[in-house]
Amino acid sequence: MERARELCSMAADVTDTATRVRADTRLRRRQRRDWDAIWEASQSDPHRVLHSCAYCHRMKAPSGEWVAIPLTVSKSLRSYKAPFVSHGFCPDCIATHFPESLRQELLDEA
Ligand SMILES: [Zn+2]
User: Fold this and answer.
1) How far apart are CA 66 and CA 57, in angstroms?
2) Mean pLDDT (whole number) for 56-60
3) Which residues surround ligand 1, an ion (CB under 5 A)?
4) Contact at 8 Å (CB) between 38 and 57?
5) Own/partner pairs for 23-32, CB < 8 Å, 24+ apart?
6) What is the mean pLDDT of residues 19-45?
7) Cα of 56 to ligand 1 centre, how many Å?
């Protein structure tokens, strides 16, 4: 009986690990699509303004999501064809760094 419990526990661990790996893979694919979309947006219109969070440096993807940009992608954006980058605050940083009285106003602008 103890061995059966042990095996069930091991099977649950394997399932949890597989679930985490799948979720991680989905996240990486989505991030990659967002990075590609930001890159394409920056290259299709040299006057396009890209938005970057002044606190966490995530960038706003055309989908509206704020995504972390790897340093290599960020450097490519700056050096290949310089897009105009405007700094603002992402919703997470507004919630973390600003008093509640300012949040709604900043969220309306974000
Ligand atoms: Zn931020």
Assistant:
1) 9
2) 90
3) 53, 55-56, 90, 93
4) no
5) 31/67, 31/68
6) 84
7) 4
